[in-house]
Hints:
six-stranded parallel β-sheet; seven-stranded parallel β-sheet; alpha/beta; Rossmann fold; about 40% helix; 2 domains
Amino acid sequence: MSGMPRGRILHLIDTGGPGGAETVFLELAVGMAQRGWTPTPVIPEVDWLDGALKKTGLNPILLANQGSFDWPYIRSLRRLLRSQHVDIVHAHLLGSGLYGTLACLGTQTPLVCTLHGRPDIPPTARFRALKTRVLRRASNRVVCVSASLRDHFVSTGDVDARARVIENGIRADRFHGTETAGLRDELRLGSETLLFGAVGNVRPSKDYANMLRAFARVDAGNSAPHLVIAGHYGPDWEAFRALERLAATLQVDERVHFLGFREDIPRFLNDLDVFVLSSSDEGFSLVTVQAMAAGRACALTLSGGPENIVGPSGAALLVPPGKPQALAAAMNRLGTDPELRKVLGEKARDHARRHYSIDRMLDRYEALYEELLF
């Protein structure tokens, strides 16, 4: 399909990342361009996503809204629809889906809106009922990134039964190598130090307090394991400080390392003996698939997306969210059993690569675009 003009897509998001939604936005814009579609990425500011797009040769348009029902922003989007001869709008998250819908009113332009997690439509959102009613416009198609997320939003009435499920995909070849980030050298740890690790921005849904409480219960055969966490601290600096204080209270602060945002996630994952996800809620969890594709043994909470990802494959240990004793038991089990880590890692790699490729995701979105346009 590459090289054949397919149509013009305006890709719209109101956050700059880094994060899962922004990564999927990037992969869709780049992937569809490679398949012959003409992308127009519209993002709010110069941030991670701006730089990531430019590295691929795509120059985004910077356009930010100023809150609920920003009519000048809507007019700007409408001008873009005309000037760029847009055939379809693909928005991410509720805010962009709402603005994209309002910009498309009175035109023949269809809109796809991808919802990435429950926080996309918070229960306390202002004008929630009105916003979701607008999102359910007849010519729109709402996509949820997991079956559990779709079931949730259907049950709340925020989306209707037409909502699709298209699970996220990754470029598995990026997680195929064996090169590491050298974390043990970086942190001056012994080569045999057992490393548990996590990736994700510091935010409430990641429930890093649960992870710290679980880690404090891990002895892994008295080998003094360490925990490394890679993720953007975001605007809530106090939340990060609270985690530091908790680690000190639990007397694990010398073995817990918050490393901030890192670009080298494939190599970071290769350093880990066990990948841990402690979330209370996940729409999908892109990094879980990345860790599985890298062949890591995984201890994951049943937080929505992870159980959909793993399914009946047995490719990871799954425990209830918010239960540090249960998470600690899974971490101890993996930490003390190298053979189990090897078996689960191989099973995880195979499962991720067979079911969550980038091409599978692009195929399904492309089929949806063609359904709307042709």
